[in-house]
Amino acid sequence: MELMRKTLLRRLDDGSKQFAEQQPSPKRQRTQSLVEPGSQALLTSNKDSTFNDVVLYQTNATHLNLPYHTTTATPPPADSNITMHRRLKLTSVASYELEDEHYYKSVSFSPDGRCILTSSDDRKLRLFEVPLSNNITTSTTTTSTTTTTTATPSATTLSTTVQPVLTFIESETIYDTAWYPHMNSESPQTCVFASTSRNAPIHLFDAYTGAIRASYRAYDHYDELAPALSVAFNIEGSRLYAGFPRMIRIFDVGRPGKPIEERKTCLKRRGSTDGQKGLLSCIDFNPDYSGLYAVGSYSGSVWVYDDRTGDAVLSFDRAHYAGVTQVKWCPQSGQTLLSGGRRDNEIVMWDIRGGTNGALQRFQRAATTNQRFAFDVTEDGRYLVTGSSQRKISLHDLSMTAGGAEENNKNNNLGTGGCTMKDLEEEANKFPDSVNGIALGTSHAQGLIVTCTGQRRPQTGAISDETSDEEDHNIADDNSDREEEEERRRNRVEIWKCNV
Question: Where in the sequence is the domain holding 398, given as residue range(s)?
Answer without folding.
Answer: 2-18+41-459+468-497
